[in-house]
Each structure stands twice: as structure tokens, then as C-alpha cells.
Amino acid sequence: MSPHQQARQLRSSRGMRNLFIIISLAELVVIVMLVGSYTQIQRTTVLVPSRISDGMVAAGAVDSRYVESLALDAIYAFYNVSPETAAYGRRVVERLSSVRDRPRLLDAFDAVAEDIRERRISTTFFPERLDHDLDGLRIVVTGNLSTFIETQRVTREERIITLIFVEEASSVRLASMTVEEPSS
């Protein structure tokens, strides 16, 4: 290899090295900018209720995990609501409720959803304890309900919610939800 060819190859290698350094620095700047912008964004996470399949009541026995799952889905539909998720929550309540009690439960949900839309708030419920009486098809959920305006929490209060279920067509469906005052 002649000195002229070596010099040309050296210049080419240096040019590639310099280009690689410039591209690496540009990528580093972009990464730093993305990290900086990501830390400046405030986010609110709204939990969406799970989709569960229909549970069966076999020989009069009800699976506790299934009823607890139904109870949590109902709680999340009613209490994890924002103006954007109200329609989905209504569909969940419609799916979980018994035929006889569905109109009353949907009316209650619609009243809550309308209030949330008018005041432009969001609510989230954090369950802390579930107590169940499977013989009575009753679940008591204790937790905290928080209310948000945009991303700012404005209230947080303890809630005790009792859900009553009924057997319907070899399945279990929501019949009622009541809120009890926590004992102080």
C-alpha cells in the first residue's frame, strides 16, 4: 500500500470516527431532552376495570374469588370515573347488574357520571379490605375515595361500600350498592 493510499484511508477513517462522534452526541442530547420533558409531565393514571367472563353457581356454591372480582369491577366502575371513562363504566355496571336491579343501578351511575361531567372532576377508589358473607352474597369493601380536579387531589375520605348480589340464571349479578358511614 502506498503512502498516498494510506493517507487517504486515514482521512476516511478519521471522517467516519468524527461522524460517529457527532451522531452519538446528537443522540445523547435528544435523550437528555426526552428525560427532561418526561420529568416535567404530570400524569394521572385511571385504572380500568378488568373484563371477566361469566361465573357460574354450581350446586349452590359460589366461588369467593369470582364474587370479589365482580365486587371490585362494580366498585371501579362507580368510583374510578372521569368524564372520559364514564361511558365505559356504565357498560360495566350494565353487564354486572341483575336484570331486575339494572335500571336503578344505571340511574344511580348516570347521576354520578353527570355530576362528574358537570364539575369536570375525576374520582379514584383505593380498596384496602374486602369482607365477604358468601351465604348472603354480600361483600363489604373498605377503602379511600379521592377526588381530583385535573391532577390535583382535593379530597380523600374513607368509604365502606356494601354490595349485595343475587343468583340469576346460574350466575351471580349485582343487586345493590350502599355506602355506609365509617365509624369514627
Unreliable stretches? 49-54
Q: Order of strands across the biggest sheet?
A: 1-2-3-4
Give a count of the beta strands, DSSP E runs of length 2 or more.
4
Characterize the main sheet.
Answer: 4 strands, antiparallel
Highest-level CATH class of the largest domain: Alpha Beta
CATH architecture of the largest domain: Roll
Helix tally equals: 4
- Which strand-content bin applies to the residues? 25-35%
Structure commentary:
The protein is α+β, with helices and mostly antiparallel strands. The chain folds into two domains: 41 residues; 117 residues, Nuclear Transport Factor 2, Chain: A (Roll), CATH 3.10.450.230. Helices cover 45% and strands 28% of the residues. The chain is built from four helices and four strands. A four-stranded antiparallel beta sheet has the order 1-2-3-4, covered by helices on one side. A hairpin with a 4-residue loop joins strand 1 and strand 2. Helix 2 runs antiparallel to helix 3 and helix 3 runs antiparallel to helix 4. The longest helix is centred in the N-terminal third of the chain and has 38 residues. It is elongated, with a radius of gyration of 28 Å. The chain starts with a helix and ends with a strand. About 3% of the residues have low confidence.
Task: Give a quick summary of the entry.
With 184 residues, the chain is α+β, with helices and mostly antiparallel strands. The chain contains four helices and four strands. It has a four-stranded antiparallel sheet with strand order 1-2-3-4, covered by helices on one side.
Present the secondary structure layout.
Blueprint: H1 3-40, H2 64-79, H3 86-96, H4 102-119, E1 122-133, E2 138-149, E3 152-168, E4 171-180
Antiparallel strand pairs: 1-2, 2-3, 3-4
Helix pairs in contact: 2-3, 3-4
